[in-house]
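Structural prep section.
Before we set up the soaks we want a predicted structure of the protein with zinc ion in place, mainly to decide which crystallisation condition to try first. Input record follows.
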Amino acid sequence: MLTVKAYGATSATAPLAPLTIDRRDVGPADVLIAIRYAGICHSDIHTVREEWGPITFPQVVGHEIVGEVVEVGSEVRKHAVGDRVGVGCMVDSCRECEQCLAGNEQYCLEGNIGTYDAIGRDGEPTQGGYSTHIVVDQDFVLKVPDAIPYADAAPLLCAGITTYSPLARWGAGPGTKVAVVGLGGLGHMAVKIAVAMGAEVTVLSRTDAKKDDALAFGAVRHVATGEEGALKGLRGAFDLIINSVSAPLDMDAYLATLKPQGTLVNVGAPPEPLPVQVFSLIQGGKSFAGSNIGSIRETQEMLDFCAEHGIAPETELIAADGINDAYERVLAGDVRYRFVIDTETL
Ligand code: NAP
Ligand code: ZN
Ligand code: ZN
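Run finished without errors. Recording the tokens verbatim:
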């Protein structure tokens, strides 16, 4: 067992604080990673504040992890000491169900094993990336291409794959019109990736505050949805909408902006239900969908795609003692566009 420094939650209401956690011994198929950077995802906040339901404490969150391999188990062939690697939102799955066998570990019928707030196959609680080291099975460790700087790579492990996967699955590309709702961590990656795929991208954000950024990321249009009647002018405009908002929205108003047979994919995960009028779907044969992160194979594909297309997130590097302030800024919509923790400051 390895005792390592971390920053975590001791209750749903107390600020995160320094603590130590134990990592398991490196097993035959395991990789020990010295974490260099960890991104802050809004899911970390939903989780530690128990917005999605009760969790166990202490809880160390963080599932946008990059670092260097410092030790490998005797059976490890996929990674070597010194490799630049990443870990995203899951660290294992059953590997036997039809979804796992088809390479969709994120949809494992037993439930994928989350990087934090889950029970690992060793029976111990998993703890996430706001820490100096992590032990992960080699099959759930990604290779970070040399072209992507470490700190930039971190947000790709959740925000990148969570938006790449539905954009790829629903065919974003030349000739398609894609709308991205909410320009935060996920939203800004959705814009950059959809643009690189060749789609024509519109950003739907509450105000004009991030308009210049949206256009700089390659969007052709930005609409401030907080303005009266803003969505009415967009009736039937989009083939695909990626909704990355962390709170409930008026779904019928957004569904009306889809073309017939278009799809609205929810990646944002508000704790509350999202009511939908069935006629918003029936008329126009529209689909109301959801998407959860992406598979390991697809995450590697996304990293390679970002390296090839020179795609990087916009990051603000912070020290560990800035995590609580960063949470408040995420909640206030004041993040441009992903906070990344320098784990040396732990
Ligand atoms: P984030 O950085 O906070 O971005 C969310 C954006 O939504 C904000 O920047 C804001 O954009 C908009 N927004 C926030 N509150 C709003 C409100 N009350 N009404 C309208 N718009 C609002 O969060 P994130 O890290 O990108 O995560 C977004 C959501 O995705 C979270 O719920 C998270 O848990 C979820 N998530 C899901 C998956 C998955 O696999 N499905 C993976 C990761 C995260 P504007 O200021 O531009 O309006
Ligand atoms: Zn996340
Ligand atoms: Zn499975």
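Observations: The chain has two domains: 2-149+313-345, 159-290.
Flagged for discussion at group meeting.
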